[in-house]
Design a protein that fits this description.
alpha/beta; 13 helices; Rossmann fold; eight-stranded mixed sheet; single chain; 2 domains
Length: 378
Amino acid sequence: MVTIAVASESADEPRIAVSPDTIKKFAALGAKVRVQSGAGLRSRISDEAYKAAGAEVVSRADALAAADVLLAVRRPSAEDVKALKPGAIVAAMLDPYSDRDGIDALAATGASVFSMEFMPRTTRAQSMDVLSSQANLAGYKAVVDGAAMFGQALPMMMTPAGTVPAAKAFIMGVGVAGLQAIATARRMGAQVTATDVRPATKEQVQSLGAKFVAVEDEEFKQAQTATGYAKPMSPEYQAKQAELVAQHIKNQDLVITTALIPGRPAPKLISRAMVESMKPGAVIVDLAAERGGNCELTEPGKTIETPNGVKIFAPLNLAGTIAVNASSLYAKNLLAFLDIMFDKKEKTLAVNWDDDLIKGTLVAKDGAVVHPNLQSKT
């Protein structure tokens, strides 16, 4: 029988990689799950709930001992991976572009290590796309937290004493998080605008009832890769877009930035001068803080207030602040991914190493780093 191990995450990571629902489905595949005692408490999953679903609740050492698979949220330590069966499978969000020495240490264990962030953006992989599932929640929570920090009403309210105007929300970057932020801000009654360098996002923004703001020149029309990500823009375009944003942002109450390009520092979209032009009480929520932030004044992991009264909130793990939902979705992503590795008849692991999803996410195998994006340390 295939043994799957799940251990507690670090103190700053409240999410967990398995849920009672996924444990039952792993059992149907022919796998048993060992969960470290207390591992799910920060996601409001008790040891009793895991046991009722069929998991073995044990110590960390017993959870890892000779397991065939280790599922994790964040990158596990090489020491934990060494405790697994030789050649075991490890699947987690590895943050693959940071701490290359840590990636090399995982590779040296001989495990087959998968980075869930590298999941291809294909129709078949949608149920396994951890970036989308977690970004959805982050986009929602960014609006909720930003609205609370703003300290004023978002929707327009007409009262006998007068009218409260709708707050203005500006979403910068219209990926999964940005689209959810637009939808949430609209539901909360804000007047919403959004910007992105990818032309395909204009229709998406407008379909949610928001106004699209961008310099729509010839470069803009070619600003999207075949995989759906934004291309780096020329200095000339960046200057024109920055000028447009500078004029727009000074009147905004809530600004949410989500712009990221995989493997690169977060692009700086909001300059110091832009922040200084904003109204007292305005709030910026920088969802790109883990990559340095989209705002020039962002201090990752902190909330600051500028001399002119603008608050800049730079969370490092916003999805983790709603760990119940985040863990549930992440666990389903992992289940869907592991499902393609099982022989359903024999109820054993039978990995097809030529599968596009396997090749796309495989970081290390047989002691070596094998992913093409990580072939160089530079």
